[in-house]
Design goal:
The longest helix is centred in the middle third of the chain and has 40 residues. A two-stranded antiparallel ribbon has the order 1-2. The chain folds into two domains: 190 residues, Arp2/3 complex 21 kDa subunit ARPC3; 208 residues, Hypothetical protein af1432 (Orthogonal Bundle). It is built from 17 helices and two strands. By secondary structure, the protein is mostly helical. Strand 1 and strand 2 form a beta hairpin. The C terminus is likely disordered. Helix 5 packs antiparallel against helix 6. The termini are far apart. It is elongated. Helix content is 62%, strand content 2%.
């Protein structure tokens, strides 16, 4: 009964604002602790706790939460028992025996529960909002992973105090403080994340106001970067840095846009010179924001080339930050496909394959091909491929404001052919 009461309190203390329709219930701590305490009885604890949720919600939402919790608890119980997890009353011996007999199986069970929870949430999001299952699940894991690690530690403490320490139901008093601290910590993290997102949105809005041709481009590049991150082995923090860099990679155009010639064909050198400064200008604009520190290398170097003929520093190969190499591929892909008259996605990937090893990192182009089935573009109408800087005025590569698309691969080729003296790093 005490587990059900604690579970119900945890459900109603849920931190809700961790993402779109995404939150964490402190009932997960109780649910995890129930595995070594009552075994498969954890299913009942989960069912009753979520059934007693006092928040107003639709019947189907409540039914989904209750059934999902039961499934997750059942999976956790199976994993715990299969891995030899002990009931707390049977866990005797020193700390090592407790870690092996309770802690390790509990951690494995909790990981399984967490992954299953993220997957089921992603499936529901797909059914309700049409989002991608893999991407949504990855975003949930990325946002909630650290919070869930703290939960399993508290759950282990709860079980040990209940059983081997002999406190029984009184152990709830000793874990109440850590539970409240965990809830407060998640609330603070959620608030900071919302503030960061609002800051980034403000910057993107300023960019799109200054450069109308970029409207929607940053969001598409960030979406593609989100797809590539798990495929390339990015951890949660690296994926967040990549996303911020993808959203803000062109922010330097806010300060340099006025320097770009309206017709680059009339003054090609002036156009390329002005264009070459916007990556570093963007990094300087954002340098004072601590949460963007990890994104700055990707912003400053997203126009470098694998062969060393890019800008602003002439880096080559793996000298180029990985985030910048990812953005370079996503940038070129969107320039080829993201406007009316652009290429179909599959055709664009084939063109980018031809540029792998010169303009682009071959591994990331391969990763793009692997995630291509998940890519959905708002507009992708077949059109001609253009080459050469002066051909940027062709329909496939002209922005709505009449300016050529500086992200088009032919602009990179023009810069590589031009190469002002001293652009390459020593």
């Amino acid at each position: 009964m005490i587990l059900v009461v604690l579970g119900s309190v945890g459900v109603n203390l849920r931190e809700r604002d961790l993402g779109p329709h995404l939150g964490v219930s402190l009932a997960t701590v109780v649910l995890a602790a129930a595995l070594p305490l009552v075994g498969v009885g954890a299913v009942v604890v989960g069912l009753v706790s979520y059934a007693l949720d006092l928040r107003p919600q639709r019947a189907q939402t409540r039914a989904f939460n209750v059934s999902m919790t039961a499934c997750v608890a059942a999976l956790g119980a199976v994993v715990y028992l299969v891995l030899g997890g002990q009931r707390v009353e049977d866990a005797t011996g020193g700390a090592l025996r407790l870690l092996v007999g309770v802690g390790a199986p509990l951690l494995a069970a909790y990981v399984a529960m967490f992954v299953a929870n993220a997957f089921l949430y992603a499936v529901m999001s797909r059914l309700v909002r049409g989002t991608r299952v893999v991407t949504t699940a990855w975003q949930a894991v990325r946002r909630l992973g650290l919070a869930y690690v703290s939960h399993v530690v508290i759950a282990f403490l709860f079980a040990v105090l209940w059983g081997p320490a002999g406190l029984g139901a009184l152990s709830a008093l000793f874990v109440l403080g850590p539970l409240v601290a965990a809830h407060w910590s998640m609330g603070r993290e959620a608030l900071a994340r919302r503030e960061h997102e609002e800051t980034v949105v403000t910057f993107v809005a300023a960019l799109e106001e200054a450069d109308p041709g970029s409207v929607g481009h940053s969001a598409r590049v960030a979406e593609l970067a989100d797809l590539l991150a798990p495929h390339l082995g990015f951890d949660a923090r690296e994926a967040q840095d990549l996303r911020y860099a993808a959203l803000l990679h062109d922010i330097g155009l806010v300060t340099t846009r006025h320097q770009l010639a309206e017709d680059p064909a009339r003054d090609e050198v002036a156009y390329l010179t002005a264009l070459s400064v916007h990556p570093e200008a963007g990094a300087r604009v954002l340098a004072g924001l601590d949460f963007l520190t990890g994104a700055l290398p990707g912003i400053a170097h997203h126009h470098e080339r694998w062969d060393g003929l890019g800008f602003p520093s002439g880096l080559s190969g793996e000298e180029i930050p990985l985030t910048a190499r990812v953005i370079a591929v996503a940038d070129a892909f969107d320039a080829l496909t993201g406007v009316p008259g652009g290429l179909e996605p599959a055709a664009a990937v084939e063109l980018l394959r031809e540029r792998a090893g010169s303009h682009l990192d071959p591994e990331i182009v391969d990763a793009l091909a692997a995630v291509l089935p998940q890519v959905v573009l708002a507009s992708s109408v077949p059109g001609p491929v253009t080459i050469g800087l002066r051909d940027q005025l062709a329909p496939a590569s002209v922005a709505p404001d009449g300016m050529p698309d500086h992200d088009h691969p032919s602009v990179s080729d023009a810069f590589a052919a031009w190469q002002p003296e001293g652009v390459r790093s020593p």
